[in-house]
Specification:
Layout: E1 3-7, E2 11-17, E3 23-29, E4 34-38, H1 49-55, E5 60-64, H2 81-95, E6 99-103, H3 105-114, E7 122-126, H4 141-149, H5 153-164, H6 174-184, H7 187-195, H8 197-209, E8 223-229, H9 237-247, E9 251-256, H10 263-267, H11 269-285
Parallel strand pairs: 4-5, 4-6, 6-7, 7-8, 8-9
Antiparallel strand pairs: 1-2, 2-3, 3-5
């Protein structure tokens, strides 16, 4: 293991080696029971710093830098959800974490890695990227791939934003969506997202490939907190949450009325952290069922 200081006051960066030899970086904050945080698509570990700091008031928080990001190894030609799970399990072996938090695609990873893995006792997912009966659209992928091949990354990003949210941003013409992205997104944020478009495509391909496999989550023994924002403009989200709650044996659902899809990392990370921390501590204080 290698260790380098990122911010002596709040966190340190570490490295773990995954099953296939890939190097996976992660940030560590706080003291207490260990929890792993898995970021979503187009995101870096640093984007969850505010959430991590808030949760670190009660837990040791390890935010994984997923493949294809920062100091972690590239996704590789044989990338799959299994590789993501292996990375999380490598981090779990190193840290002894029994708690797991995932956002969007990271929530999908969290649910997959928790299957048949009783060493995770508490899982919290915020709007997990689980596709049920086509709830995650795939029609944007051919046009997106074409724009990437033409090295028109901003146009590709427009195709993604419009395609993944057909009921809202999908109704806007591409030129207007492009103008809005240039107007309202900082150059730093825009560069980060454009740099991760290839990774984003592979990740969403995995979500679509496993469409309808959510029944496998009956195998999860952990207590699972399902979270979503009341202002997430996705009519398919409510149905997805209901399906997940119906199959996962031990679930609790929490809605944040004033938050959207990015509530955990951008909207109100401290508020989400309080709910997650309270749920985890409550479960730890509850004697296991016999």
């Amino acid at each position: 293991m290698t260790t380098t200081s990122i911010d002596a006051a709040t966190s340190t960066a570490h490295m773990v080696v995954s099953q296939d030899g890939a190097k996976i970086s992660y940030l560590t904050l706080g003291h207490g029971p260990a929890v792993i945080v898995i970021p979503g698509a187009l995101s870096l570990a640093a984007d969850y710093a505010a959430f991590g700091r808030a949760l670190a008031e009660q837990f040791t928080v390890h935010i994984i830098e997923r493949r294809g990001r920062g100091q972690s190894s590239p996704q590789g030609a044989d990338y799959s959800i299994q590789k993501e799970c292996e990375d999380v399990l490598a981090l779990q072996r190193q840290t002894g974490a029994s708690g797991l938090v995932g956002h969007s695609f990271g929530g999908f990873v969290a649910l997959e890695v928790a299957r048949n893995n009783p060493s995770f006792t508490n899982v919290a997912v915020y709007e997990p990227g689980v596709s049920i009966e086509g709830s995650i659209p795939a029609g944007w992928m051919p046009r997106f791939s074409q724009k990437l091949a033409e090295q028109k990354n901003l146009d590709a990003f427009v195709e993604f934003v419009r395609g993944i949210n057909p009921e809202s941003s999908g109704k806007l013409p591409p030129w207007l969506m492009k103008f809005m992205l240039l107007l309202f997104m900082s150059s730093h944020e825009r560069k980060q997202k454009l740099d991760l478009l290839h990774e984003c495509l592979r990740e969403h391909q995995e979500e679509v490939r496993l469409d309808g496999s959510y029944e496998n989550y009956r195998e999860i023994e952990a207590s699972v907190l399902l979270m979503y924002g009341g202002k997430s403009y996705n009519p398919r989200l409510q149905r997805t949450m209901e399906r997940l709650a119906a199959v996962i044996p031990r679930t609790e659902t929490h809605t944040f009325p004033k938050l959207d899809h990015f509530g955990i990392d951008q909207g109100a990370p401290q508020e989400v952290a309080r709910v997650v921390g309270a749920s985890f501590l409550r479960e730890q204080a509850t004697p296991p069922l016999r």
